[in-house]
Amino acid sequence: MAGILIYSDKDKLALELITAAHQIATVLGQEIKAVAINNDAQAQVLASAGADTYIISNAEIVQADVAAVAAALQQTAEQLGIDTVLLASNRRGKELAGRLAQIMGAGCLTDIAGIKVADNKIECQRNALGGATVAIQYIAAPRKVIAIMPRAFEPAGAGTGKISHLDVAARSSGVKMLELKEKSSDSVDIEGANILVAVGEGLNSQGDLGMVETLAQKLGGVIACSKPVATDKKWLPEDRIIGLSGKKCKPELAVLLGISGQVQFTVGIRDAKTIVAVNTDENAPVNQMADYILNADLHEVVAGLNKALA
Amino acid sequence: MNIVVAMKQIPDLQQIRIRNRKPVFDDVPMTLGAIDKNALEVGVSIKESQGGKVTVLSAGNEDLEDTIKEALAAGADEALLVIDDALAVAGSDVIAMVLAAAVKKMEAAELIIFGEGSGDNYSGQVGSRVAAILDWPQVGYASSLELNGNMLRAARSLEDGEEIVEVTLPAVVTVISGINEPRIPSVTQILKAGKKPKEVLEPEDLGLQIPAEAQVLSLSNLAPESERKQVVLKSVDELVQALKNENVIGR
Ligand SMILES: Cc1cc2nc3c(=O)[nH]c(=O)nc-3n(C[C@H](O)[C@H](O)[C@H](O)COP(=O)(O)OP(=O)(O)OC[C@H]3O[C@@H](n4cnc5c(N)ncnc54)[C@H](O)[C@@H]3O)c2cc1C
Ligand SMILES: Nc1ncnc2c1ncn2[C@@H]1O[C@H](COP(=O)(O)O)[C@@H](O)[C@H]1O
């Protein structure tokens, strides 16, 4: 019986993959197996969530060496007779997905936000055309590598799985990890926020962020942004980016200030319940996805709101 | 140093209209992927500081011959194009097979630079697949690169931090958009671009045949349904009232 193998170096994402695997396995009658590489503690976590877990211990397989991790997973799949591998669609996972698919001779889909099994097909939902459309696709090839977006599934609950050890040959490609500078994690979680006040390139200066922050506080929300505000201007941390390469948010209220509304942005906020757009350009595309439109200078609107909400 | 930059031709996403939830491509011009332009800028700036040659490599339909001028104007020295109608809709596996075969044909390429994701598909597979076929090491999501002889040191931008890695060339690198600001070519550069060398191949010239069966198939591709009120307000006071009516303030 062909099984499903799940892998992510992040415990939480691996647990989400177990849930996704269940959705497939119950329909197709498959077993769920997990692998942990040089991480015994993770093996415990995954086994306690119901997956039969294999530990690979081999110091030559380093996380930063995608080729080495892919080779280890390919050998695991082969030894266990597995044709479907689920990975996380974070950056490491996406990068791994292509390499693993290539050496497995598998078809591959990344950034999968939802799964439905019908007709013996694993129908996968992903954004296409930069987020303008949502495509339903499936892998027709017998071998499959599917990378699942973080948070698309709830982490798996308790279960019981066995832990075993597995030997694979290390195939290092010579990538040396010199340093991992951990980001001081942003304590604000824009994905979980009920109210978001998002700023775009229409904001005049970093100094003007102060009054936007005040507005966010008055509304009981948090501040988020379009990509250039974080990556080009570096006015806010990248964790605050809404969109295709940022976060997908579903707040009750989103106030979009000086954001033009390109698809790569709107894909991250279109599930909001109420959207307010403030933009000086009455033809800005963002207006088409807004419930309330104010064609005005955002700085004046923010100042006015801060006064009105005193 | 022979640097290859892989760039994908895509429809200008800003100009795609949605009708009955379906994307309409009529008269939408082709362009090069935004992040691929960052990849090119990396290649060109390495060349400018250390010497060498930048070849832009692309697989697609015949429109490429025109689209690629943008890359030649922005600093690529020459183009290698693999052209076939089937390549305009081919899957990542096929594109990777074609690009890898083209790289093998070139003289001693040492560094291949990809975008982190293509503008339309954004699946981040092609670079990894090419690295696997060539059996080269890869460094993904680079936010800065430093070359010292044949040693490459890169900072990789991950969700929870920055990873500094080192690798010996040849290698595959994918870059994020934050790595640089792509230059805008001048009018003279655009005029000169047409005269730069351009080699056009067909898959057969690389000894390749495009498989008839796609690995990945699409069942549907529709814009999500959205119903928004689109009420135009005249003042902050009206906005405050609207938010009260929506029950999001003054609770
Ligand atoms: C593969 C890929 C992935 C991407 N991922 C993301 C992503 O995840 N998130 C993201 O945001 N972008 C993403 N982008 C970039 C995206 O295409 C847009 O470039 C970006 O969203 C634009 O940001 P913006 O709306 O803030 O800026 P702009 O497009 O420059 O818009 C600024 C707006 O502000 C308005 N304005 C100016 N002054 C004022 C004022 N005083 N008051 C009010 N309004 C004013 C202008 O009319 C304009 O509409 C991605 C792009 C690519 C190619
Ligand atoms: N048809 C193509 N021709 C040349 N390069 C491509 C092509 N498709 C993808 N690429 C490269 O591969 C990267 C990742 O693409 P993707 O896997 O589609 O997200 C892009 O940013 C390009 O650098």
Keywords:
heterodimer; A: 310 residues; alpha/beta; Rossmann fold; seven-stranded parallel β-sheet; B: 251 residues; two-stranded antiparallel ribbon; 15 strands; 26% helix; globular; binds adenosine monophosphate
Can you characterise this structure?
- The complex is a heterodimer of chains A (310) and B (251).
- Chain A has 310 residues and is α/β, with parallel strands linked by helices.
- Chain A has two domains: 4-165, HUPs (Rossmann fold, 3-Layer(aba) Sandwich); 195-308, TPP-binding domain (Rossmann fold, 3-Layer(aba) Sandwich).
- Helix content of chain A is 28%, strand content 28%.
- In chain A, the strands form three sheets. Chain A has a seven-stranded parallel beta sheet, with helices on both faces.
- In chain A, helix 7 links the parallel strand 14 and strand 15.
- In chain A, helix 3 (66-80) packs across helix 4 (91-104).
- Chain B has 251 residues and is an alpha/beta fold.
- Chain B has one domain: Rossmann fold (3-Layer(aba) Sandwich).
- Chain B contains seven helices and 15 strands.
- Chain B has a nine-stranded mixed beta sheet with strand order 11-10-9-12-8-1-6-7-13, sandwiched between helices. Chain B has a two-stranded antiparallel ribbon with strand order 2-5.
- In chain B, strand 9 and strand 10 form a beta hairpin.
- In chain B, helix 4 (92-105) packs across helix 5 (126-134).
- The N and C termini of chain B lie far apart (64 Å).
- At the A-B interface, helix 3, helix 4, strand 5, strand 7 and strand 8 of A face helix 4, helix 5, strand 9, strand 10 and strand 11 of B.
- Strand 8 of chain A pairs antiparallel with strand 14 (216-222) of chain B.
- Bound molecules: flavin-adenine dinucleotide and adenosine monophosphate (AMP).
- Adenosine monophosphate is lined by residues 6-8, 33, 35-36, 39, 57-60, 92, 95, 99, 114-115, 117-118, 121-127 of chain B.
